[in-house]
Specification:
The complex is a heterodimer of chains A (519) and B (323). With 519 residues, chain A is an all-alpha fold. Chain A has 20 helices and no strands. Helix content of chain A is 60%, strand content 0%. In chain A, α4 packs antiparallel against α15. Chain B has a single domain, classed as Porin (Beta Barrel). Chain B has a twelve-stranded antiparallel beta barrel with strand order 2-5-6-8-9-10-11-16-17-18-19-20. A two-stranded antiparallel ribbon of chain B has the order 1-21. The chains are: A mainly alpha (519), B mainly beta (323).
Chain lengths: 519, 323
């Protein structure tokens, strides 16, 4: 009996040791230190803008002098906030102090993941299409699939960048120091990292205003959610001692005005025509069959209309639409009837017929399918965690994300142009014995979206952080490979060409980076 | 001795139920009211098959023509050893294969989780001539035996969590009829998935997933002698927390998976070959949430190996059957 009790005790001890570790889970960016820029980039007001013609396209009135009663009243408001901080408010200050560009990017990734769900079919086997004019009805607008997401990240990042360049322009122009520089009590109680960056207009407010305003176009069901974040950020920024109310008000108004320029472009960039109609979808198949090629068809049941077949006509940021069709569009894939295509299909079958555990892991890591933040979001996550270590100023964060996400959006455009120009079938269509290790996306095969996104992202990120260039390219190669070994794409035609096209797009972003005044 | 001879013919019944999606293998030996006799080792092999066509996304019941029928085959080895007649050690480990009958998704296969149990009978009491009561306490531990992908629902072979289980069982036998009720709490440790971020009802920038714990209960009743057991089972399982699958989303390991199921089991102990028995059964999920509506069948063969110290072949708690 003693033996039994002894063995029971041993078992219980092992169990408790094993489970002794807390079940609490922390996100990788939860506990990061506050942003403390290595360089405040005081001259960023002269950096090259994306859409605005001038940094002062929208006027910001000169702030009141810091010795006037108005400003002193604002300082007192900050002191009042500092005196009554709850633990929750302190946690919010800490959260936002890591960087508002980072946090808004994370919020964007969350919204993309939340809305990245293909609509459920109607009773008659057709599919409902999300409607921007009735966004709350099922299926909610948008369905943030990879091209939609790439464009959303692109617009948000580009607008944040222009808004911060304008913000920096006025900061330098008016040169009003932060509250912690103007008042010794606030200075003593400030939680904010203290820098020489002027606080008028507040960069957090500019970011909040521009992001919230862009949401009206991109994620209309989330306006209230984002506005709650805006209020949270305002309270956190003011109570940290980083800005007074007039810094905030001027900044938020500037951000919202600048967003209007980007939203106007977005409404006219051909995205609204990207879905197409049944007749247009049919003509894509007919045109492909007329060339003697097997046209792509949906592998879903009931057959789902192709995903945004005319997204290739969306207006890019880094080059014009003619460049998409005439310069960046790759040559054709091997004919669907060719031995080469047969060989490439066999290669896919070889990888999927008996997958290794290591391959399954790679496929899963890069899958980024339905319900995720998509491949561009994955690259944003990779970038963000590296940017944190670089101690960029907020404006440089915005600039680097703009370069990355404009490249990702333009990669989506070029990739989608090729996909629907060639309308090439998936491996599982040519050989139904090919079972995939993750879901097959509902659009043509050539060229691989993952490869294009990854090639573009690795190229521009390698320029931004040269010491990581090889690592980024290795990641991109793995992402591309994941689509081959997962049975989603052919290797030589889809993945390799996709990588090359992606790198070409990335090079346009490098060209911009070299001439935008930030390097 | 006649008593011992009859007792010999009993052994641990082990029945697999595949209820949750397609993955969870459950050796019913840990939930029944049958004990191995001291120093006896019972080992067996089981085959189980489960399939479902309909499933619930949250409370929305649907089918999916891109999956067709999702099925799982399970081959397992299990056993029980009588440390004493009141304390048993149980183990089990299945090999699982899954597939979808339609669509392009690849099936999965591999060795799933090792389950270890200690089953203790602290109380057994005879009242009058026909009635016996018994109480049991069961402690379980299970952990993945391979690095299979848990984040591949609905075709994952398991959820890849390491679990601790506590269970109380109460049993009553009256003549040849019995009823057993049990309640179970399962603590599930965090799992690690092969992704750096995932969305539940909010975004998580981590590869760790908080697995909600599970409360379950079972009621079984029927005819039980030392030759035959024929019983009906009702199962209830409730994940405490977790989230619903959104419309047309993929399932996730930390979903709020609940179900009730009804089943039957049969067991026969051979007279001609003492220690040999056959088991079989089936069950059907009546209602669920974030799970498939599984129909399950299983069958197996068990044999009791007597060690030098063995006095009797096996026993269950019922002293009446030994009469």
């Amino acid at each position: 009996m003693k033996k039994i009790i002894f063995s029971l005790l041993i078992t219980a001890t092992i169990a408790f040791v094993y489970f002794g570790c807390s079940k609490d889970i922390h996100g990788r960016t939860d506990e990061l230190p506050a942003l403390n820029p290595a360089n405040i980039d005081i001259d960023a007001g002269s950096w090259k803008l994306v859409l605005l013609s001038r940094p002062d396209s929208f006027a910001v009135a000169a702030p009141a002098a810091t010795n006037l009663p108005g400003y002193i009243g604002e300082l007192n408001e900050v002191k009042g906030l500092q005196a009554n901080l709850s633990d929750d408010e302190k946690a919010k200050i800490k959260y936002w102090s890591v960087g508002a560009v980072l946090r808004f990017n994370e919020i964007m990734r969350e919204l993309v993941a939340k809305h990245n769900l293909p609509p459920y079919q109607n009773e008659d086997g057709t599919y409902p299409i999300p409607s921007g004019s009735n966004p709350f009805a099922y299926p909610q607008f948008p369905f943030s699939n990879p091209p939609y997401a790439a464009r959303a990240y692109g617009y948000i990042s580009a607008s944040q960048y222009d808004a911060l360049v304008a913000c920096w322009y006025y900061k330098k122009l008016y040169n009003r120091a932060a509250p912690y520089k103007n008042d010794s009590t606030i200075n003593a109680n400030a939680i904010a990292v203290k820098t020489d960056l002027p606080s008028y207009p507040s960069e957090q407010a500019v970011l909040a205003g521009v992001t919230a305003e862009m949401m009206k176009m991109l994620f209309p069901t989330e306006i209230a959610y984002v506005n709650a974040k805006v209020e949270e950020l305002q309270l956190a920024t003011m109570s940290s001692g980083a800005c007074v109310r007039s810094d905030w008000v001027a900044g938020e108004a500037l951000g919202r005005q600048i967003a209007s320029v980007f939203a106007a472009r977005g409404r006219a960039d051909n995205t609204s025509k990207a879905v197409g109609s049944q007749a247009q979808w049919d003509s894509l198949a007919t045109a492909t069959a007329a060339k003697g090629e097997i046209p792509w068809h949906s592998l879903e049941t009931p057959a789902r209309p192709p995903m945004l077949p005319f997204f290739g006509n969306v207006k890019p940021f880094l080059f014009d639409s003619l460049t998409v069709k005439n310069v960046l569009r790759p040559g054709p894939p091997p004919s669907t009837g060719s031995d080469e295509m047969k060989k490439q299909t066999e290669e896919v079958y070889g990888y999927t017929s008996n997958p290794t555990a290591e391959n399954l892991k790679i496929v899963q890591f890069w899958a980024d399918g339905a319900g995720t933040f998509t491949p561009p979001g994955h690259w944003d996550a990779i970038a963000a965690e590296d940017f944190v270590k670089q101690n960029f100023s907020e404006v440089r964060w915005a600039r680097n994300f703009a370069l990355l996400n404009m490249a990702e959006m333009d990669a989506a455009i070029v990739c989608w142009d090729a996909k629907y120009f060639y309308f090439n079938p998936r491996p599982s269509q040519l050989n139904p014995a090919i079972k995939t290790l993750t879901g097959v996306p509902n659009f043509p095969s050539y060229i691989s979206g993952h490869s294009t996104f990854s090639g573009a992202a690795a190229t521009i990120l390698g320029h931004i952080i040269p010491e990581r260039a090889d690592a980024y390219m290795a990641m991109a190669e793995e992402a591309a490979k994941s689509r081959l070994i997962g049975g989603i794409h052919y290797n030589a035609s889809d993945c390799k060409v996709g990588m090359d096209v992606g790198k070409n797009v990335g090079n346009y972003a490098i060209q911009r980076a070299l001439t935008d005044g930030a390097e | 001795m006649r008593i011992t001879e009859r007792a010999k013919k009993y052994m641990v019944a082990a029945v697999l139920v595949i209820a949750l999606q397609t993955q969870i293998a459950k050796a019913q030996t840990d939930a029944d009211a049958i004990m191995m006799a001291k120093s006896n080792l019972c080992v067996g092999a089981m085959y189980g098959h489960s399939s479902w066509k309909n499933y619930w996304e949250g409370t929305f019941k649907r089918d999916n023509q891109n999956l067709g029928t999702v099925s799982a085959k399970m081959y397992s080895v299990m056993g029980a050893y009588g440390i004493t007649s009141k304390l048993n050690f149980l183990f089990g480990a299945p090999y699982v294969q899954t597939k979808a009958s339609r669509g392009t998704l690849h099936g999965a296969e591999g060795i799933q989780d090792l389950s270890l149990w200690l089953k203790w009978m602290p109380l057994e009491k005879t009242i009058g001539k026909k009635t016996v009561y018994a109480i049991y306490g069961v402690g379980g531990f299970s952990t993945p035996l391979s690095n299979y992908e848990g984040d591949y629902l609905p075709l994952a072979i398991g959820l890849h969590s390491t679990n601790l289980t506590g269970r109380v069982i109460a049993d009553i036998q009256h003549g040849d009829f019995f009823a057993t009720a049990s309640g179970t709490y399962t603590y599930r440790n965090n799992i690690t998935i092969n992704r750096d971020a995932y969305y539940t009802t909010s975004m998580h920038y981590t590869n760790k997933v908080d697995m909600p714990n599970v409360v379950s209960a079972q009621f079984r009743t029927g005819y039980r002698t030392n030759r035959w057991i024929a019983e009906a089972l009702f199962d209830y399982s409730n994940t405490i927390g977790g989230f619903d699958i959104r419309k047309n989303d993929m399932p996730f390991p930390s979903n709020n998976m609940d179900w009730t199921s009804l089943g039957v089991n049969l067991k026969y102990n051979f007279k001609s070959v003492p220690g040999l028995s056959l088991v079989g059964g089936g069950s059907y999920v009546l209602h669920g949430r974030n799970v498939g509506q599984s129909t399950m069948f299983n069958g197996g063969v068990f044999y009791i190996l007597r060690t030098s110290k063995s006095k009797s072949v096996a026993s269950h708690s019922c002293k009446l059957c030994a009469k």
